[in-house]
Amino acid sequence: MAAFESIVDLYAPRLLRYIHRRVGDLHTAEDLVQDTFLKAFGALAGYDSSRSLATWLFTIGTRVAISHGRRRFEISVAAPNELSPGVVNEPDMRMSRQEEHDNIWDQARGVLPDSQFAVLWLKYAEDMPVNQIAEIMGHSQSNVKVMLHRGRKRLAECSEMEYRSEDAKATRRAPARDQVNYVG
Questions:
Q1: CA distances from 53 to 3, 9, 31 (A)
Q2: Does the N terminus or the C terminus of the chain have fewer Cβ atoms within 10 A?
Q3: Which CATH code of 3.40.190.10, 3.40.50.720, 3.30.160.60, 1.10.10.10 fits the domain covering 96-174?
Q4: Which tens digit of pLDDT belongs to each residue from 128-179?
């Protein structure tokens, strides 16, 4: 039992971040993480120790979150996450980076299908290799690579459209040089 408690202590924060991003509600995510560990504990006899424990737990967590989404019919947009890892001395810089980090994940949550979002999260937020992601998601490695490519491409397109939109707004607000009245 103590061994399983250490597994929970080690993997619960990562699973919570992942599931929280999938379902968008921290309290629901906490419940789903607890369900994940209950299912894992019940299935310990079937765990293949030649495989990664993280992959096995994230697979269970993914399936629990999918089941929850089916029951709810819709998954809400994720709320901002806690500070990303990395030490920065200036608090303003840290907040700016965190806001940018959250905005990227919020944008991804809003424009990508659930499976593409999950693949990108596992790759970049959890730093998992493609083979583990493929196992968790139940797809081939080639399919995961395609999903990563398409997800990054879609995010780049959305960012470009947003940039152009902001640039157009700024251009419309700025008066033309010959329209400026100089007082002298």
A1: 13, 13, 21
A2: C
A3: 1.10.10.10
A4: 899 999 999 999 999 999 999 999 999 888 877 776 766 666 666 555 555 5
CATH number of this structure's domain 1-79 = 1.10.1740.10
H helices present in the chain, as ranges: 2-23, 26-42, 53-72, 91-111, 114-120, 130-137, 141-173
Instruction: Please say whether the dihedral angle defined by the alpha carbons of residues 81, 85, 88 and 93, taken in this order, is positive or negative.
Output: negative
- Among 28-32, 91-95, 107-111, 150-154, the minimum mean pLDDT is found in 91-95
* Integer Cα distance of 8 and 119 in angstroms: 23
